[in-house]
């Protein structure tokens, strides 16, 4: 999860988030190169006397017309690749349904006969020592690590958004509509998120907690809840 005075992204815990962080760094390097070039040219124009080369230079005009097009292509190609990767859902090992309410989440494990629960934020007065305020829930979403997970997101009342930054997941929950996305947790751990759509007075009290565990631990957990 994020730390105080952190400037960068959270540590990537899924292949999609790794691609997003890499593209972010790529775009920043392109922006840095552009800013450096513009600053150099501005400094050169201020320091040097004007001449006919700066007034009428067809070669320079040709370059600064073609170069931005090349830069846009270098940004568009990896961006489109990531967009297609985020939309692709191929034979998930587990399907999870998340339903947004004012102001809590309901979860259904559709691959199991009777495995569902509501997830509420733990109030600060009842929060165990060492847990995070406004981020901890009474029931965590438990998933097996290194397994493709499909999540179906909807809402029961108003707009919500199911988001886990470290997994690179953010899907709007819209009443009467099913949105879906997928992710793979590449390591065990606890990942925190929140509702990312303003949904009313208690919008900031809808945390999401995903716990990634080895497959045998997940099987033990699911068998305890369904027994």
Overview of the molecule:
By secondary structure, this protein is α+β, with helices and mostly antiparallel strands. The strands form 2 sheets. It has a 5-stranded mixed beta sheet with strand order 3-2-1-5-8, with no helix packed on it. A hairpin with a 2-residue loop joins β1 and β2. α1 packs antiparallel against α3. The radius of gyration is 24 Å and the shape is elongated. 19% of the residues are buried.
Structure, briefly:
With 227 residues, the protein is of the alpha+beta class.
**pLDDT averaged residue by residue:** 89
Structural class: alpha+beta
Name of the level-1 CATH class of the largest domain: Mainly Beta
CATH architecture of the largest domain: Sandwich
Range of strand content? 25-35%
How many domains?
2
Secondary-structure element pattern, one letter each: HHHEEEEEEEEEEH
Strand count, sense and barrel status of the largest sheet are: 5 strands, mixed
Number of strands: 10
Count helical runs: 4
Helix share, percent: 25-40%
Radius of gyration based on Cα positions: 24 Å
Annotated CATH homologous superfamily of the largest domain: Cupredoxins -  blue copper proteins
Instruction: List the uncertain runs.
Output: none
Bulk shape: elongated
Strand order of the largest sheet: 3-2-1-5-8
By CATH, the topology of the largest domain is Immunoglobulin-like
Cofactor: Cu cation
GO biological process, one term: ATP synthesis coupled electron transport
InterPro entries: CcO_II, CcO_II-like_C, CcO_II_C, Copper_CuA, Cupredoxin, Cyt_c_oxidase_su2, Cyt_c_oxidase_su2_TM_dom, Cyt_c_oxidase_su2_TM_sf
Keywords: Copper, Electron transport, Magnesium, Membrane, Metal-binding, Mitochondrion, Mitochondrion inner membrane, Respiratory chain, Translocase, Transmembrane, Transmembrane helix, Transport
């Amino acid at each position: 999860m994020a730390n105080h005075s952190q400037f960068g992204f959270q540590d990537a815990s899924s292949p999609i988030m790794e691609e997003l962080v890499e593209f972010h760094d790529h775009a920043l390097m392109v922006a840095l190169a552009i800013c450096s070039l513009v600053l150099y040219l501005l400094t050169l124009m201020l320091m040097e006397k004007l001449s006919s080369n700066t007034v009428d230079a067809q070669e320079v005009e040709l370059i600064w017309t073609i170069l931005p097009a090349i830069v846009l292509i270098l940004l568009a190609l990896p961006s489109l690749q990531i967009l297609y990767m985020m939309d692709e859902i191929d034979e998930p090992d587990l399907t999870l349904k998340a339903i947004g309410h004012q102001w809590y989440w309901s979860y259904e494990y559709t691959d199991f006969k009777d495995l569902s629960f509501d997830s509420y934020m733990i109030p600060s007065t009842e929060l165990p020592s060492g847990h995070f305020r406004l981020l901890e829930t009474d029931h965590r979403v438990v998933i097996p690590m290194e397994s493709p997970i499909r999540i179906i997101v909807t809402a029961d009342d108003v707009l919500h958004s199911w988001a886990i930054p470290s997994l690179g997941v953010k899907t709007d929950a819209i009443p009467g509509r099913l949105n879906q996305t997928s992710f793979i947790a590449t390591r065990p751990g606890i990942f925190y998120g929140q509702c990312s759509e303003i949904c009313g007075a208690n919008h900031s009290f809808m945390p999401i907690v995903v716990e990634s565990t080895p497959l045998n631990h997940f099987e033990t957990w699911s068998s305890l809840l369904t027994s």
